[in-house]
Amino acid sequence: MTSQLITLLHHGGAALAARLAPGAAWHRAAGTAGTGTLGGHGCAQRVSDRESELRALMSMASHDLKNPLAAVTAHVEMLRADYGSLGADFQRDLTAIERGLGRMSRLTQELLDYARADQPLNLGPASLDDMVQDIISDHVTIVGTARVVVAGTLPTVVVDAPLLRHVLDNLIGNAIKYTPAGSVPEVEVRADVLPDGAIRVEVADRGIGVPAADQLKIFDAFHRCANSSGYPGTGLGLNICQRIIERHGGRIGVEDNPGGGSRFWFTLALLGRPGQQ
C-alpha cells in the first residue's frame, strides 16, 4: 500500500512538472528579455497569445493531477482505517502526507480557477445580498465562531454570478482565515453607491493586516505577505480576484482598516462600461 502511494505521488508530481516546464521556461526568458525583444504591437500580441496558451496548459495540468490526488487521498484514508492502531510515528507520517495532499489540492484548484477567470462572461442580474449570505453560511458552518455581519442591504448587480461569487468567497474566506490564533474572526461586508453610479463593495476584518510593503504587490500571482507564513495559501487567490473584477470593468484594492486589520474593496462598473467583455 505504501509503495503504491509513493508511486502515485511521484507520477502526479512528474505529470505536473512535465506540463508546466515549457511555460516556466518561457516566463524566465520573457522576464530577462530586453525592451528591444518585447517592444511593438506584434510582440505584444505574441505575449498575449502565449499567456492564453499557458492558461490552457495550467488547466490541463490541473486536470491531470485531479485523479492521482484523489487516488492518493483514498489510499491514505484506507491506511488510517486499516492501520490506525499503529504507533505515533505512523500516525505522524500519515498526517504529514495529508497536509501535503491538502496543499497540492489547493494549488490544483487555484490553477483551474486561474484558467477559468478568462472564460467569456455570462452577465445577468445577481443579488449581492443573497450571494454574501450564502457564503457567510458556508464559512460559519466550517469555522463556527466567526462573526460576519452585513452592514445594510447589498444591491442587485449585473455580473457573471459564479465568477463574482468566487471573488466574494475568497475575500470573506481570507478575512476569516487570517485572524491571529485564539481570536474570534470579525468581518464586515458593505456596499456603497459611488457618485457615478458604480458600486463599491468592502470586506473589512480585524485580522493580521497587510504590511504596507505588501499592499501594492498582494495582487501579483504567487505573492504572499511577509506575515502570512503561518497560514495555508498559494498566492494565486487575490490575483484571480483582480482579473475577474477587471474583466467586469472594475478595480480592486486593499487598505488598512482603522482600528486594526485590513479592508479589501472592489468596484463594479455599470453595465456596458469599457473593460466589460
Structure, described:
By secondary structure, the protein is an alpha+beta fold. It folds into 2 domains: 2-116, no CATH class; 124-268, Heat Shock Protein 90. The protein is built from 7 helices and 7 strands; from the N terminus they run ααααβαββαββαββ. It has helices at residues 2-32, 35-38, 41-83, 88-116, 128-143, 161-177, 237-247; strands at 124-127, 147-150, 156-159, 186-193, 199-205, 252-256, 262-268. The strands form 2 sheets. It has a 5-stranded mixed β-sheet. A two-stranded antiparallel sheet has the order 1-3. Strand 6 (252-256) and strand 7 (262-268) form a beta hairpin. Helix 1 runs antiparallel to helix 3 (41-83) and helix 5 (128-143) runs parallel beside helix 6. The longest helix is centred in the first third of the chain and has 43 residues, at 41-83. It is globular and about 65 Å long. It starts with a helix and ends in a 9-residue tail after the last strand. The model is unreliable at 20-38 and 271-277 (pLDDT under 50).
Roughly how much helix do the residues carry, as a percent range? 40-55%
Proportion of strand residues? 5-15%
Low-confidence stretches: 20-38, 271-277
The CATH topology label of the largest domain is: Heat Shock Protein 90
CATH architecture descriptor of the largest domain: 2-Layer Sandwich
Give me the Rg, rounded. 21 Å
Q: What is the tally of beta strands?
A: 7
Summarize the structure.
It catalyses: ATP + protein L-histidine = ADP + protein N-phospho-L-histidine. With 277 residues, the protein is of the alpha+beta class. It contains seven helices and seven strands.
